[in-house]
Fold this protein.
Amino acid sequence: MAVIELRLQHLEQLFDTLDPAPFHDKALDRRVESWLLDSAGEHGHREPLVIVLHGPGTLQAHVPDIAAAIHAHFELVHQQAERRHVRRRRVGRLAMLAGTATLAAVLLLRHWLAAVPAPFGDVLSEGLLILAWVALWRPIETIGFDSWESRQQRGILRRLAQVPVRFVPG
């Protein structure tokens, strides 16, 4: 079991002091959020996580509220990440369509440029081929590689939205 330790002296350390929302709806402090994300990301996705809060005994009564706030925060962040992922996939598919159309047009133009005498025809033909590859670069990166990172990040957020929270006084 992977343990993420969090030390608090008082409850206010957990929340963003600039957020005017009531206790349960407050955003987590950016440093706390970053610490939890980084710590959770260090462990395998199959390894169970637990957050262990260390702090004065006065915090023990607030542990259910703290757990609910952590879960609500990361559930919201997870939902936002899911929406961004869906948008990126849609844009990636449109970019792939545009890149494929560009590749088809370039290959057709290169076929016609075969009649243009060298070296001008050769330079133009190679330039068009480079253009086609550049047009396909971003869609391939978005669909192929960014989705791996996005899947990992969304998995971490999902885990943190459900992570058990324990308290250790002292």
Notes: The radius of gyration is 25 Å. The CA atoms of residues 17 and 29 lie 7 Å apart.
